[in-house]
From TrEMBL:
InterPro entries hit by this protein: NADH_UbQ_OxRdtase_chain4L/K, NUOK/Mnh_C1-like
Family classification: Belongs to the complex I subunit 4L family.
Pfam family, one: Oxidored_q2
Annotated GO biological process: ATP synthesis coupled electron transport
Entry superkingdom: Eukaryota
Protein name: NADH-ubiquinone oxidoreductase chain 4L
Catalytic activity line of the entry: a ubiquinone + NADH + 5 H(+)(in) = a ubiquinol + NAD(+) + 4 H(+)(out)
Gene Ontology cellular-component annotations: mitochondrial inner membrane; NADH dehydrogenase complex
Native source organism of the sequence: Brachythemis contaminata
Subcellular location: Mitochondrion inner membrane; Mitochondrion membrane
GO molecular function: NADH dehydrogenase (ubiquinone) activity; oxidoreductase activity, acting on NAD(P)H
Membrane topology field: Multi-pass membrane protein
Length: 96
């Protein structure tokens, strides 16, 4: 039964990676696929660590996941304020 769950988690992570690689028109869709990958990894780590009763590591993982999401949203907001859209084609115009 555990092998079945492993295949489900691998499928979730690979589908998140597929959407990250092939759906790159908008920055928001890329950020959503990254959050889906983080959520899939969180559930996988939760089920693995549940048998060991060591769930403190999940707090560190969630903290890093939240920091990643906040940084992505900050970049999204600054890009929308400066360019008015969230297209990846606008990235070549970014010059500091």
């Amino acid at each position: 039964m555990m092998l079945f769950y492993d295949f489900i988690f691998i499928f979730l992570i690979l589908s998140g990676l597929w959407s990250f690689v092939f759906k790159r028109k908008h920055l928001l869709s890329t950020l959503l696929s990254l959050e889906f990958i983080v959520l899939s990894l969180f559930f996988y780590i939760f089920f693995v660590l549940l048998s060991y009763f060591e769930l403190y590591f999940l707090m560190y993982f969630l903290t890093l996941g939240v920091c990643e999401g906040v940084l992505g949203l900050g970049i999204l907001v600054s890009m929308i304020r400066s360019h008015g859209n969230d297209y990846f084609s606008s990235f070549n115009m970014l010059q500091c």
